[in-house]
Amino acid sequence: xRCLVSARTAARPLLIMLVGLGLVAGLTACGxxxxxxxxxxxxxxxxxxxxxxxxxxxxxxxxxxxxxxxFDGSNVTITDAxxxxxxxxxxxxxxxxxxxxxxxxxxxxxxxxxxxAVKDLPTVSSGGGTLSVESVAALRPTVxxxxxxxxxxxxxxxxxxxxxxxVYFDPQRxxxxxxxxxxxxxxxxxxxxxxxxxxxxxNDEITAATNSVxxxxxxxxxxxxxxxxxxxxxxxxPGSGADSLIAAIGGIDAGTASGITQxxxxxxxxxxxxxxxxxxxxxSDGLASVGGIDGLEKIPxxxxxxxxxxxxxxxxxxxxxxxxxPNTGRVVAALVKALYGPTTA
Length: 345
Hints:
alpha/beta; Rossmann fold; seven-stranded mixed beta sheet; four-stranded parallel beta sheet; 29% helix; globular; disordered N terminus
């Protein structure tokens, strides 16, 4: 997946996110379902199936002009949604545009929007997530959807000078923010009814997925790791977004529980051993970048953890794992299945 730098962590040499491990032991049933085994052992890839967001309906007709409150505090009036660029560090905004049924209006994306439906669209950011104002301008957008992390204050000034209509969104990604983000994008594009329908569908899918988590005697401690070769290895803590996802799948964020106070912290043997995760959760490309499970075990402290000893590792496609968009229900459902195994009535 893509390397992205948070505005809050720009002063630190931290890039961005993703890796964790997942698994657990001794599970009993939730409702009428029970686990078929005490736990899932060994590496598992959580599969959401088709990475494309499913449109909530036929392409809607935007009702414009629409004036919305941008996350940077300004009021923005959108008069034309015929050429949309959606670029943020997670690919969430492009996913939302497609799920709203407006794929035909999308003309540009960030490199982190890596799902099949948009793979042929030009990107306006580098592999490191850096936005190119020149690339944005060349696509002649009528509206540019982004966030306040992807676009620095200097870039905001440049976009303003070019007269490009820009709507900024909250860069934080959490479970609680999924539905409000969908509604905010829909409002900016003049399709509030499609936004309401998509928000309801997404909320229902999330509810069903979280309800499928089996009851447990003790919640599993899960460490979310972000890996980009052995040069960039980080463990997640509070505010990373991973903590919210781990809670949704019935786990405890191991980094936060161990006392980490930053969203991402470079891995040390001491930090990893203190976290003592029962399972790891990672992005698939991140896991591959260190040489798979064998390479992961060579990272300081990993082999000494319960998860490392049991090789309890869950990975998922970089394109969806931390996007917190319209695919979130499927993400949670796939992680629950990979972590706890299939259930039977």
